[in-house]
Design goal:
Residues 310-448 form the Right handed beta helix domain. InterPro entries: Beta_helix, PbH1, PDZ, PDZ_sf, Pectin_lyas_fold, Pectin_lyase_fold/virulence. This is Peptide-binding protein. By secondary structure, this protein is mainly beta. The protein folds into 3 domains: 2-100, no CATH class; 291-647, Pectate Lyase C-like (3 Solenoid); 686-779, PDZ domain (Pdz3 Domain), CATH 2.30.42.10. It has 9 helices and 65 strands. Strand 24 and strand 25 (306-307) form a beta hairpin. It is globular. The relative contact order is 0.06.
Length: 782
């Protein structure tokens, strides 16, 4: 009996410690309450504080439907985290919004020039203003234009003396610009003017490749004199007055206004020695945070990036934490940032959109890197280099996951950003995400430290929309061994075999993804990217580029309407390119060595194969019709009778993007363009180029009208208003006869040459107009 009694007591004790304690939050609550179901607290911060008093327990924070503003970042730290497990969740079937903005009802008065004003006292100047949930632009020049490709409107004279002379006091305004090479962005805070009205400003630290700001792609904001367009606003902190030109059709008397107060809503921070564990956040919306672009200062080794370690949710020093089924939108910075040590965290089934910076970022501590260097042109001398393999410590994200997230319309302010960013991390799984409408890469890996990543089943498209020289997937590999000079790398790797693998200690795998980039490459392995396995991917537009690096095996990929771009390869690279389907001939640049094996590929035209074989590669490759099941709809599975199988190619799983039913209903899909076989013997072919339609020269009348000596060239037959062709001053009847110093004999050659050089962003062309030859510089993108 005694034993049975003790057993029952023991079971009851165990069950009581397993039972979860629930803290309730409601908009009708009071922070002085205990947090019970009948006496809930009112704020998110109070709910978290109430949870922290329960030692060694499972705690659930359940939040009633409603909006919960946060005016100070809520922190959960290892010093104040006594729990065994914490779940933060929305009440079932209710919408919970945690906001970095505070709502106000304002009393408006007429001012002048269609402006109204309202008195409001704020501790600091607001960064973003929302009216009825819609973001309004600050007073800016040029005015906000939703159709403009870069920054929603730019102008070369944005910071000219002629313009700044009109501004009484521009202090506190901002200058935003692309990098001179379109490699990201710069931002500056205006500090005043000198005696000549020249602007004084500080900033420009957001990019790790120093340069001048772009001469054309720039704009200014937060300047009172530029308040001249419906929807624009300006806050004068000294006067404690908000000025606004009301949006067309708005009712200010019933409108709700919200100002962003903070850039980061929640920080979960432990340490490598004492991590925070087992926190789950599910079903919650995180919205309306301030922009963080002026805090982007920390360089990421030798990549082009600088970063701010902050986001709506920051994880640092955590283990087994989950952010699932949440929404992140209308954010000024990043959505989720995993900084330094994080292990086995999972970011899954989230919808991330309309945000200023990154979707999800994994960034380790440079203190874990052996012999780190922090600029493209910097390096540690080989004689002083740490030759130990791998990291110095474990202070970096590892074995974490980004799965089934829908990420789009990111980087609205920070252009050096990505849907998923990885730096100084190991074994990150990025799987079944759909990523689109981003200014630069959809997925970016900043360097080789420390590899082991698996990038699979993602659908990444509409990428590199505002920048240049990049890819839908982009990587750099400027690791310990790397130098800009090929001859130095060749010599040091020959002298120290294996040095190229000291940082990227495990292969990085890209498999079963669909990538599309019209302004660069679909897959872009840039400077030194090493130790990659790339297979079973569909490249829809920009092709696949491998710049110098080592140990890349690329096989069983489908490259639609483009080709393989090998650039400046190293000696004895061990690179392999085989069993791939390509549309056009290779587009090599300064190739002196061709790796271990380049063969057994399949080309969609005989001409492309013959041209490629002249490079002394692909002796056993084949050409012909691929036999896709339905190429016009993007079904690139092969019919059983396809000749492609003779090369060793194998059909593969093409289940790209999100599989979560909620997100799948919301996602877009890439545009599937007609298959261009790049043959030169087809007349009457009409192609789209730069938004205009071109055809071959076929008749004596066409030759005569243009004043051509022969039938060579591509005739512009239809010009769409607002197209890139129109913006480049091309006109109906123009005949393109040369592109990038290459003769254009047909529309197919025009497209082939364009596919090889469009990554440059601009080019010289020669046209025949009015029976006269003209040379022009054209932009290849909007």
């Amino acid at each position: 009996m005694i034993k049975q009694f003790l057993l029952v007591v023991s079971i009851l004790f165990v069950c009581s410690t397993c039972k979860a304690q629930t803290i309730y939050i409601s908009t009708k609550g009071n922070d002085n309450n205990a947090g019970s179901i009948y006496h809930p607290v009112k704020t998110f911060a109070a709910g978290v504080a109430k949870a922290m008093i329960h030692k060694n327990k499972k705690v659930i924070i359940e939040i009633d439907g409603g909006t919960y503003p946060v005016d100070k970042t809520v922190e959960i730290t290892s010093e104040k985290f006594p729990l065994r497990e914490l779940t933060i969740k929305a009440k079932a079937n209710e919408k919970v919004i945690i906001s970095g903005a505070r709502q106000f009802k304002l009393s408006w008065k007429p001012y002048k020039n269609n402006m109204v004003s309202a008195k409001i006292k704020l501790n600091k100047a607001p960064d973003q203003l929302f009216m009825n949930g819609k973001k309004l632009p600050m007073a800016r020049y040029p005015d906000f234009d939703s159709t403009a490709r870069v920054f929603n409107g730019t102008a070369a004279n944005a910071i000219s003396i002629e313009r700044s002379r009109k501004w009484l006091n521009p202090t506190g305004g901002y200058i935003h610009a692309l990098h001179q090479g379109e490699w990201g962005d710069f931002h500056y805070r205006i500090t005043g003017k000198d005696a000549t009205d020249k602007l004084l400003y500080e900033g420009g630290w957001q990019n790790n490749r120093p340069a001048k700001m772009h001469t054309q792609y720039r704009y200014v904001e937060n300047i009172f004199e530029e308040l001249d367009h419906p929807g624009e606003w300006f806050y004068n902190q000294k006067e404690e007055t908000l000025y606004l030109i009301p949006p067309v059709g708005s009712n200010l008397q019933t409108a709700d206004f919200a100002f962003t107060m903070i850039s980061d809503i929640l920080h979960i921070k432990g340490t490598l020695a004492n991590p925070v564990k087992n926190i789950t956040i599910t079903g919650v919306d995180f919205v309306q945070t301030a922009r963080s672009f002026m805090e982007v200062k920390e360089p990421l080794l030798r990549s082009d990036w600088a970063i701010y370690r902050g986001a709506a949710i920051l994880l640092e020093g955590t283990e087994s934490c989950i952010i699932n089924n949440c929404n992140f939108y209308d954010l000024g910075g990043s959505a989720v940032f995993l900084s330094n040590y994080n292990k086995e965290d999972r970011i899954s089934n989230n919808h991330i959109y309309n945000i200023g910076a990154n979707g999800i970022a994994f960034v380790g501590n440079p203190n874990a890197v052996r012999s780190p260097a922090f600029r493209y042109e910097n390096f540690v001398p080989y004689a002083q280099m740490d030759m130990e393999r791998g990291p110095k410590n474990a202070d970096y994200p590892q074995h974490c996951q980004a799965i089934n997230n829908l990420i789009h319309h990111t980087g609205s302010i920070e252009k050096q950003s990505a849907g998923v960013q990885i730096s100084m991390s190991a074994s990150i799984l990025v799987s079944h995400n759909t990523i689109y409408h981003v200014p630069r890469a959809g997925i970016n890996i900043s360097e080789g430290t420390w590899g082991g990543h698996i990038i699979e089943f993602n659908d990444v498209f509409d990428t590199v929309l505002e920048t240049g020289d990049h890819g839908a997937f982009n990587s750099w590999g400027r690791d310990r061994y790397w130098r800009p000079e090929r001859s130095i790398i060749d010599s040091i790797v020959a002298a120290k075999p294996g040095i190229e693998l000291l940082d990227v200690i495990a292969p990085i795998v890209l498999r079963n993804n669909r990538f599309q980039c019209d302004h660069g490459w679909d897959i872009d392995l840039d400077d030194g990217s090493t130790n990659y396995q790339i297979y079973n991917n569909v490249c829809l537009s920009g092709g696949l580029k491998l710049r110098e690096g080592y140990h890349r095996t690329v096989f069983n990929n489908i490259i639609i309407n483009n080709t393989f771009h090998p650039h400046v390869w190293l000696k004895n690279s061990d690179d392999v390119f085989k069993n791939n389907i390509l549309t056009a001939a290779y587009a090599p640049i300064l190739m002196e060595s061709w790796g271990k094996e380049i063969d057994h590929n399949f080309f969609l035209s005989k001409e492309a194969l013959i041209k490629t074989q002249k490079l002394n590669v692909d002796a056993n490759s084949l050409s012909g019709e691929a036999g896709f099941v339905e190429a016009n709809t993007g079904n690139y599975h092969l019919k059983k009778t396809s000749a492609v199988f003779k090369t060793g190619f194998k059909d593969f799983d093409m289940n790209f993007g999100v599989t979560n039913p909620r997100l799948k209903k919301l996602t877009a899909s890439p545009a599937i363009k007609p298959l261009n076989d790049n043959s030169d013997n087809i007349k009457t072919t009409i192609v789209d180029w730069l938004g205009a339609r071109f055809k071959n020269i076929e008749t004596l009348g066409e030759r005569s009208a243009a004043g051509l000596p022969d039938n060579n060239g591509a005739l512009l037959t239809q010009l769409t208003k607002g197209s890139v062709a129109e913006k480049n001053n091309l006109k109906k009847g123009d005949v393109v006869v040369q592109l990038d110093n290459n003769e254009v004999k047909s529309v197919n050659e025009l497209i082939k040459i364009y596919n090889e050089i469009r990554w440059k962003g601009h080019s010289q062309i020669i046209i025949i107009r009015n029976q006269k030859e003209q040379r022009m510089e054209v932009s290849l993108k909007d």
